[in-house]
Inverse folding.
């Protein structure tokens, strides 16, 4: 069905760079003709909402559930703005990143948000939700945003009202929304299936790692009680000890340093989410601040481990680069002169360590551990030559799983790219979905506004409670 979509019969120039040519019969109007700004305050008892970059407007409790994020809303919510179903809301400072959407809920948002209401009841907010979350509109929002740096860019209400937006006939808006909900439902099901396979592959990897780092490679080796209730027996010649006995743990400098476009990389929480350190998307700082951050033996080097002690507690990455970088916030450095660092990294990624951290963090409101707790973590220590052999085995054994996972992740990425392109082509009139929408079954697919059920923790939301500085 998607493969047979065709353009509209006739087009005209919209005279808007972000839209290009649009169907001949579509009016293109300034947003002030389509929307009225709403500043309905004094509703402190209403439910808190958040605008996420990946999903649009959601209930804040859904954002905070099973998340390290905390409620940053003010105690006095009298200035918060009421949002009702059909309203479109965005964050002034994050609209250019996609923090905009139509609401399905009644609730309140912080003063950092702008609330717009469609003037005509016949217009479908769901159409504008899709339109304003395209990369095309993001670039237009960026063009109209004002500020000294990107961190301070603000799309003010008066500028939003000056942006020109197409207004397809209501029946076409309905056809586009229906078609996209159907298409998104199919794409989401495909992604979920791939995610399930990835989860199973990760489970199998964890089982292999756990067996190797807690029992070794020789199935006939004599065993002894480990003294750890949830672990059971371990090889008789292995040592159970605190991490501090063989490893040095050095905390980061607790400094908030300025970020620059071109500077020295910083490794923080985001950079340690995989087995090896990834600096491709890291923030950077000035050389003079880098020198401060590496004082006291804090300069990372190849073979070190960077360990997360806040938010994603237990995430750990091996340094496999010789470039200069410094530790950012919420991480520490683990180093040993006598042990195989790669073995410890496998151990820190094992279910044995995950269970230990779960017990340590039980009842904690915020998931974080201090340096003394990291030093006290129980670790299993085979002889060095055995650590080396276990690492060689795991590197080889897990390579096939990593290849399969990477392939599935690429396929998911392609599906997401396809979805983004499809939505943009539909809502800007490059494809005519009216015939396809008429052929859909009555219950043509699950409601699916955004293909983002597995959001990137690094950029999934914008729940700022601060008033943008104008």
């Amino acid at each position: 069905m998607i493969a047979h979509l065709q353009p509209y019969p006739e087009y005209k120039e919209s005279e808007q760079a972000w839209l290009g040519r649009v169907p001949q019969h579509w009016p293109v109007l300034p947003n002030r003709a389509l929307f009225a700004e709403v500043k309905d305050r004094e509703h402190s008892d209403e439910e808190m909402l958040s605008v996420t970059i990946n999903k649009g407007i959601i209930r804040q409790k859904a954002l905070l559930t099973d998340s390290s994020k905390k409620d940053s809303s003010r105690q006095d919510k009298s200035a918060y703005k009421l949002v009702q179903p059909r309203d479109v809301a965005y964050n002034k400072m994050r609209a250019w990143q996609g923090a905009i959407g139509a609401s399905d809920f009644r609730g309140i948002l912080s003063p950092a948000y702008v609330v717009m209401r469609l003037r005509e009841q016949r217009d479908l907010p769901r159409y504008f939700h899709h339109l304003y979350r395209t990369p095309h509109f993001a670039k237009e929002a960026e063009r109209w945003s004002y500020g000294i740096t990107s961190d301070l860019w603000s799309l003010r209400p008066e500028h939003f009202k000056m942006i020109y937006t197409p207004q397809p006939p209501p029946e076409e808006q309905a056809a586009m929304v229906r078609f996209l909900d159907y298409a998104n439902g199919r794409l989401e099901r495909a992604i979920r299936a791939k995610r399930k396979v990835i989860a199973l592959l990760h489970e199998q990897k964890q089982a292999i790692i756990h067996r190797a780092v807690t029992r070794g490679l020789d199935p006939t080796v004599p065993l002894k009680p480990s003294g750890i209730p949830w672990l059971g027996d371990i090889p008789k010649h292995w040592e159970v000890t605190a991490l501090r006995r063989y490893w040095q743990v050095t905390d980061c400098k607790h400094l908030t340093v300025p970020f620059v476009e071109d500077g020295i990389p910083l490794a923080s929480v985001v950079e340690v989410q995989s087995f090896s350190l990834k600096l491709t998307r890291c923030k950077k700082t000035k050389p003079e601040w880098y020198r401060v951050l590496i004082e006291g033996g804090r300069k990372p080097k190849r073979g070190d481990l960077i360990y997360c002690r806040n938010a994603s507690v237990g995430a750990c990455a091996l340094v496999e680069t010789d470039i200069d970088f410094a530790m950012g916030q919420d991480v520490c450095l683990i180093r040993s002169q006598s042990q195989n660092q790669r073995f410890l990294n496998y151990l820190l990624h094992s279910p044995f360590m995950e269970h230990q951290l779960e017990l340590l963090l039980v009842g904690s409101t915020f998931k974080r551990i201090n340096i003394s707790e990291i030093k006290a973590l129980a670790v299993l220590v085979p002889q060095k030559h055995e650590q080396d052999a276990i690492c060689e085995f795991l590197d080889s054994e897990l390579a096939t799983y990593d290849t399969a996972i990477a392939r599935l992740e690429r396929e998911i990425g392609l599906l997401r790219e396809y979805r983004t392109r499809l939505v943009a082509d539909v809502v800007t009139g490059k494809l005519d979905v009216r015939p396809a929408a008429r052929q859909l079954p009555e219950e043509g697919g699950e409601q699916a506004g955004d293909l983002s059920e597995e959001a990137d923790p690094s950029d999934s939301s914008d729940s700022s409670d601060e008033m943008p500085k104008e």
The first strand starts at residue 11 and ends at 13. The two ends are 48 Å apart (CA to CA). Residues 444-461, 463-470 have pLDDT under 50 and may be disordered.
